[in-house]
């Protein structure tokens, strides 16, 4: 249960102000069709984070636990730093919807926007850390929906009222704490 709750909380916080949340704002404002946008977000996230969770599970099967702890600890600290850098959205990511429909465009643009994004990389790291990829993927998907569904319904009005710097700082602190705890565990194994 810890894997689910931590994954959901960390991704929900990390997603606030992320480019996919900005994409949700833009798609909602432009097309005013919340249900196909939300369904598209869900489908894209399940596929993207499912692949990330599988990669995390695979990594744990091929990398020794000692090395994995160091890599994960440093990855979480890197995620803390990356979380503090604001994202921007590219306008062409929203142009696809004019050709293929709102649901298909949302799936395609969200899937592509998540490729290599901090929440996808966090999913890989948490799946490797917790060694429960299904719970991590469920948690990260819930986290994405917690952050993005309100964006679809409320749009730009909410964005101006959220203290983005504070939210990013909290998410960064959680990633840093996970990183430090992992590194301390790795150091303890070496007798530090």
UniProtKB/TrEMBL annotation:
The organism's superkingdom is given as Bacteria
- One Pfam entry for this protein is GDT1
Asked if the record carries the keyword Transmembrane helix, the reply is yes
Protein keywords: Membrane, Transmembrane, Transmembrane helix
What's its membrane topology? Multi-pass membrane protein
Q: Major location, coarse class?
A: membrane
What are the subcellular locations of this protein? Membrane
List the transmembrane segments: 38-60, 67-85, 134-154, 166-188
Q: Which family does it belong to?
A: Belongs to the GDT1 family.
Protein name per the record: GDT1 family protein
Q: Which organism is it from?
A: Dyella lutea
